[in-house]
Amino acid sequence: MMTSNQPPWHRTFFLIWIGQAFSLLGSELVQFALVWYLTRETGSASVLAFASFVALIPRVILSPISGALVDRWNRQRIMIGADSAIALATMVLAFLFWIGKIQVWHIYAIMFLRSLGSGFHWPAMQASTSLIVPKEHLARISGLNQTLRGALGIIAPLIAALLLEYLPMYGILAIDVLTAIIAISSLLVVVIPQPETIRTDVKNAASKLWEDIRAGYQYLIRWKGMFYLALAATILNFLLNPGYTFVPLLVTKYFQKGVIELSLIESAFSSGMIMGGIVLSIWGGFKKNIHTILIGVVGLALGTGIVAATPSSQFMMAVAGMSLAGFMQPIANGPIFAIMQSHVAPEIQGRVFSLLESMVSAMMPLSMLVAAPVAEWIGIQGWLAFGAAGCLLIGLMGFFIPDIRNIEESGKTRPQEISN
Q1: Phi, psi (5° rounding) for residue 414?
Q2: Which has the closest alpha carbon to 350: 246, 209, 231?
Q3: What is the SS3 string spanning the chain?
Q4: Of all helices (H) and strands (E), which one includes residue 321?
Q5: Is residue 193 over pLDDT 60?
Q6: Cα(316)–Cα(274) distance, integer angstroms
């Protein structure tokens, strides 16, 4: 953790956390604005599906590589570099909007590059957190992070909807660049602890890369409970991600509403996330984190089912369903990170976090390609109903699978097999 001559952990962590909160706000503004631009200009589920597809590809293919490098390189420098690269990509997109030469494929390309930067930043931040924050506070920090995302999910759509009325797209993109500078500045004034096995020799890291990736896969597979949980999360993402990606079309085509209603329904989801994150950060979950996770999955299914069952004349019923689904998301997701940060050695967390992310994301691009034509056939609400049923089944089954039910006990006793 932190030595006695270093600042208190909360000072270091929250300085970084505040900077990242600004960066996330900028990213949420850009995400909302770009999705609305594609929805308005094309009105196509296939376009939205492909935009999601290109943003997911780096998370699936490159996460194992980025995770291995995070465990070998200085994590603080990785986060600074990733934030800088994302800001640069956003500046290019802003310039294309400014000169009036923007095309849909430009948006796809920048989404890909931004996702690539996030693929390095996310595991570096998660792995750094466990070196800064004491173990007894990790579950609460996970709840706090979910609360932050929920709060940004409320604020960002509302701000973006307002800004879209008064600013050109390149003005909104410029805000994201400014927030990235704030995040980078916060990283420059702190010292983030590094694992003892950190490597600064790039050549050595590259030569060991594939060995690290293979060892990371072996570690995750041997922890059967976490591996099965990752498989369940993979299926859940296949079932749920497309339906929520198509919410802009659900609002405009099914409910016959506009950008204000879109911001309202997305804010409802985020309001639920805030409440769920606050509850988790105060409560800390059940004694067994896995019980908290599975109940969250069941609740997520119920919220999604409400949205699927909403008549076109009852928009506020869908808003309520989205709020419930949002509330259950941090209950389902937060404890997963707490389990991993508590039971995985710091020097291998980059690989394990990234491999889990890769597994969870692997089916999402495929689901978007499958869901686009299926949603055109059975409707977006039909896909949401299908996803809700599968989510409910998975949540209930988890209570009866011993390796999942006893995931924390096996995490405490398992050896840290990965060599560095």
Answers
A1: -75, 145
A2: 209
A3: CCCCCCCCHHHHHHHHHHHHHHHHHHHHHHHHHHHHHHHHHHCCHHHHHHHHHHHHHHHHHCHHHHHHHHHHCCHHHHHHHHHHHHHHHHHHHHHHHHCCCCCHHHHHHHHHHHHHHHHHHHHHHHHHHHHHCCHHHHHHHHHHHHHHHHHHHHHHHHHHHHHHHHCCHHHHHHHHHHHHHHHHHHHHCCCCCCCCCCCCCHHHHHHCHHHHHHHHHHHHHHCHHHHHHHHHHHHHHHHHHHHHHCHHHHHHHHCCCCHHHHHHHHHHHHHHHHHHHHHHHHHCCCCCHHHHHHHHHHHHHHHHHHHHHCCCCCHHHHHHHHHHHHHHHHHHHHHHHHHHHHHCCHHHHHHHHHHHHHHHHHHHHHHHHHHHHHHHHHCHHHHHHHHHHHHHHHHHHHHHCHHHHCHHHHHHHCCCCCCC
A4: helix 315-343
A5: yes
A6: 19
What is the C-alpha separation between 141 and 135, in angstroms, rounded? 10
Query: Do 221 and 227 form a contact (C-beta atoms < 8 A)?
Result: yes
pLDDT in tens, 235-293: 888 888 777 778 888 888 888 888 788 878 888 887 888 888 888 878 877 888 889 99
Rg over alpha carbons for the chain, rounded to the nearest Å, is 21
User: What percentage of the chain has pLDDT greater than the value 90?
Assistant: 16
- Whether 273 and 149 have beta carbons less than 8 Å apart is answered as yes
Amino acid at 254: Y
Rounded to two decimals, what is the model's pTM?
A: 0.64
Q: Which amino acid, one-letter code, is at 204? A: N
Burial grade of 217 (CB within 10 A; 0-12, 13-18, 19 or more): middle
Query: Which of 12-21, 131-140, 158-167 bottoms out in mean pLDDT, i.e. has the lowest?
Result: 131-140
Domain 9-190+201-412 has CATH 3.30.565.10: no
CA–CA dist 72, 78 (Å, integer): 11
